[in-house]
Each structure stands twice: as C-alpha cells, then as structure tokens.
Amino acid sequence: xxxxxxxxxxxxxxxxxxxxxxxxxxxxxxxxxxxxxxxxxxxxxxxxxxxxxxxxxxxxxxxxxxxxxxxxxxxxxxxxxxxxxxxxxxxxxxxxxxxxxxxxxxxxxxxxxxxxxxxxxxxxxxxxxxxxxxxxxxxxxxxxxxxxxxxxxxxxxxxxxxxxxxxxxxxxxxxxxxxxxxxxxxxxxxxxxxxxxxxxxxxxxxxxxxxxxxxxxxxxxxxxxxxxxxxxxxxxxxxxxxxxxxxxxxxxxxxxxxxxxxxxxxxxxxxxxxxxxxxxxxxxxxxxxxxxxxxxxxxxxxxxxxxxxxxxxxxxxxxxxxxxxxxxxxxxxxxxxxxxxxxxxxxxxxxxxxxxxxxxxxxxxxxxxxxxxxxxxxxxxxxxxxxxxxxxxxxxxxxxxx
Length: 402
Known about the structure:
The protein is mainly alpha-helical. The protein has helices at 2-11, 14-23, 25-36, 44-53, 70-73, 83-88, 98-139, 151-154, 156-170, 177-190, 195-211, 218-241, 246-255, 262-274, 289-293, 300-314, 335-347, 370-401.
C-alpha cells in the first residue's frame, strides 16, 4: 500500500496541480465565504438535502430532484437519477455546511481535472490557456454556483470536465472511459437540461475511439459497463415498476408541442458565448438573465465577431491529416507514443510505421504458378546450402589455425 501511495504521489505534477488550484480559486473563495457566513440550505436546496438524508434509509430515492417540466405533461417529472443525492448522502450527516463544502471540493476537483487533461492534450501552453479561460468563466457566473447543492448549479463544472474527458477518449485514452461514463451520468441525472450536451460529447468521444480502430482493453470495457449499470440501475428499476415511469414522461416532455426556444435561440447562445464580449468575461446579473438574453438578437459586433471566431476555430479542418492510425497518434505523455518517437529518432522516419497491404478481391483469383514457387523454393534452398558450406569452411580454417 505504501508503495502504491509513493508511486501515485510521484505521478502528480506540481505544475498541473498549481495551475488547477489557481484556476479553481473562484470556487475555493466562494466555498470558504459561504461556510464562514453560516451557509444553510433553503428552498430547493433544502429539499435536495432532505432527499439526500433518505439515501441511506429504507426510502432511498430512485430519481433526482423535481423538474419544472412537470407542467408540460401534467404529471410529476423528476431529474433522471439520484446521483446528486448519493454524492451528498454522507456530507448532509456531517454538519449544516458540509454539503456546500462537498460541492466545493467536487467543483475544485473538476477544474483541476480540466487543467490536467488540457496539458495532456496540448502541453503547457494549452494548460495555461485553459486555466485562464476557466477562471474567467467562473468569474462570469454567480459565486454561489460553485458551492450550491442546487441541481442546475451542481452539474456545471462536472460537465466542463466531461467535455475534456470525451476529447481525451476520442484521442485514444481508453482508460478514461469509465470516468467519462460516471461524470456524464452525474451531469445528466443532476439536471435534465444537460442530457443532449452530454450525449453529444459522449458520442464524439466514442465515435472517434471506434473509428480509430484501436483495441479497447476488455477490462476497461467491463469497468465502464459496470459503472454505467451502477449509475442507472435505480432509474431503470423505477421505470420497470412504475407506470408510465419517469423516463417515459421525460420522452413525452421532449416530444410535446409546447413552445420551444428553437434554433434562433441556440444561435443567439453561440453568439453570446463566443462573440465580443463573450458571456464568460461578463459577470452574470442574476440566474435567469442569460435565459432572457437568448430570446433577442445581439448587436452586429457580437454577431460578426462570433462568425469570425468560429471560422478561425474551423481552420484546422482544412489541414486534417488522414492516414492509418498508429502509436504516433497517441498523446505524447503515453509510454506507447514515447517508444514510437524513440524508434523514429533512432532508426529514421517510417521504421516503425504500419505496413498496409491492399488486395483486390473483385476479380478472379490468380492461379498459383507452381514453376515460380518451385524456383523460389529452390533458390532459398541454394542459399541455405551456400551458407552451410561457408560456415563449414570457416570452421575448418579456424581448426587449422588452432
């Protein structure tokens, strides 16, 4: 055990931890201030704390918090699962401020994870850029978001971590697959609004992983499957024993003909997110202000700048390298990539590249030319005989010298 602890500590990069904690300063400061001010759960927070107390009882919740979408179908609809309650089950028993501390720790870990994965994807430069961007994003949100147990707030930073996990899985880090499953499940179960973004991120990660042709270790697949089953066992059980069931009601909400924001509001969200000045560098006025922002078109400057930023982000697509995947496509931090680079440096480019054979099976198969085969075999045998004779001659010369 001590050896494992020492090896784990040796893998911790103090630069990554320092940059991650610096990016998480808004979360840490917000949590400390809330605790010092005597944080207490009220309103929706109080209901979440009460339901978290039920986790270790005979009335453990099968679903998440009550959803406002209930008004759409006229029946009570809940968030998809109880993972937020599971997370808070022990902290709610440790003191009135413990749930806020727990959420602060989860959000801090999420930020540090984002920064660490950024380094794996793009080195120190990307790590520091992402750390600064996360700190700015945190500045644009209300401080209570970072320690609040309210389910829409609880999923914000874990979802940011999920985006980087999906990116890493797409890049070939199969070992992160189980963690992506757990973080994605938590985000969806905490707040139904995150369902589509989570599914999109996971689909990208799995899609690129499958398309790469890399073999995923069976142990990783099994662990990911067990994690998925554990996360969703209670929601599926609720669906099986109740009618119509929460998942069916969520489907009805999605398929209802009530007024939706539509693609225009989605585009306005993109404009506000990447246009000048973006949302994430402007302090949030209140929790619902940005919901109102997407209902109206922003100014021309924000629209034009958003299009320009998206165009710049799309430029790498013009220079995509399409070829057979091998270890050179792995992250530079992996042993396989370092070994591949070492082979290239020692023996030259292409020395350890894949050998591709193309076979056209659409035509009649060629008949074996036995004469050519015999000739090749005869030549090989002649070479062996010559090599044997040469070896015997060398042995005789050596014996004569002795």
